[in-house]
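Listing 4. Sequential folding, example run.
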Amino acid sequence: MSAATASTSIPSTRPIRVVLAKIGLDGHDRGVQVVARVLRDAGMEVIYTGLWQTCEAVVRAVEDEDADVLGISILSGAHMALVPQLVALLRAGKLDHVRLVVGGIIPETDIPALEAAGVSRVFTPGAALGEIASSIHTLVGR
């Protein structure tokens, strides 16, 4: 069963918890802040870790916050190096039930490799904000 289709056991009374993060040296976070607001407005609990995070720090935040979803925003072009590291750390921490979504400047040609590595969804520039929220609801089964 792929990460995108695995079922979850999130209690229906608890809001979906989403950790949003910027990893690496990418210093642009306006987009992730907009997404955070949209997800909050959609009833989710959102934890934004801020700029310049390491993969290790982000995985710790996911575990500490008992997150259902990890959203990574990458504009730097380092996604093919950083996202596989992140997936490996999630698996090593037995957090592979956490849905991973990635947004930012991601070439269409890289999306299949990211999905094969364990990314549930990739959102490129122009993705509708409502689509991001509804996709997360779908990914966690609520």
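-- end of first protein; second protein begins --
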Amino acid sequence: MSPEAYRPLLLKNIHRPDSASLAAYRESGGYRALERALKEMTPEQVIEEVKASGLRGRGGAGFPTGMKWSFMPKGPGEKYLVLNADESEPGTFKDRLLMERDPHLVLEGFLIGCYAVGCRHGYIYIRGEFVYPYRILMKAIEEARAAGFIGKNLFGSGYDCEITVYRGAGAYICGEETALLESLEGKRGMPRLKPPFPAQVGLYGKPTSVNNVETVANVPMIVEMGSSWYAAIGRPKNSGPKLYCLSGHVRKPGVYEFPLGVPLKELIYEHGGGMLRDLPLKAVIPGGSSVPILTADKVDVLMDFDSLAAAGTMLGSAGVIVMDDSVCIVDALLNLARFYAHESCGQCTPCREGTGWYVQILERLERGEGKSSDLDLLVDLSDRIQGNTICPLGDAVAMPVRSYVKTFRDEFQYHVDNKRCLAKPSPVLV
């Protein structure tokens, strides 16, 4: 696919210098979908339209959005929609772009979602370090409120909706929905046991649905253009446009928009401009740091939920991290393990202790003091962590560790046998 063959839908406004303003958004047809939803559709019809579109959550899990909304109880009673704007997966920076460059698109999708689930007070949980996006978002909310799109009797429909923005403290775990809810309630951000699920017992004990920024940004176009139009974009069961974050050893890193299912090879070599410094490709992380790694001979794969699952990895947040052959895989994994050990909330023993053990073992390998048995120990640790913690943070480090060791076992063994790194010319310090 040539760059000219696809016209961006999510990023169509971002190159305008005034793209964050209400005036620019209205010029491009903004808030028409919200008006249509409120005046012409029932909440149930909005949910059915989103279901029919096949929209799957863009935060990482890929769960069908309409299905998620349908789990919320019907009828009167307090309930909440929470926007997860905590984007903290290493290698992922698409939600930040949407909030900075097209905040009204995010707000419109969020308001439609609030209407669909029967919520009259929505919360936006934004990462504390996102100071600039926070300011942009707050200004957009003020504009939208002044225009009557937030508050009482939206578009004369009788529907009221307020929005509160809450800044987190910058903890990776608060990207997990139940830890986010705990933090939003003013407590330490630690995950809750499920069940009960948030749709039953969520924020302040009320039914709650949590959605990702990119996910809700898809909703206005579904309401305005229809589910059939939307479902025709992408591939079966993997419909709609997708933002891909490309970073690492490529000539043109950035956020790219294509339909779900763009080939990974095409993303790197055509849109990303190919390998930086023309060094050979060694490996790719296709979906953010928490997913299994792919070797260079596996990049002929489509970037959608099901194709990557069939290839033994995940789309995740679509944070594509490219590594050339100058990268030491042991060092890269140590860097990743240190991150997860630091970010573990400490609630579950396998995660709290296991992530620290990962770091100790990998540091030993890097110092040239490792043993062959360390390689099996890393895999064994992963088997004991994965699936044995309250939240997916344990899985988020166990999966890549197992994947790196199994895929690049020879390189790990080289560290043991030669007490130096295979990829770097200098010897490992002992």
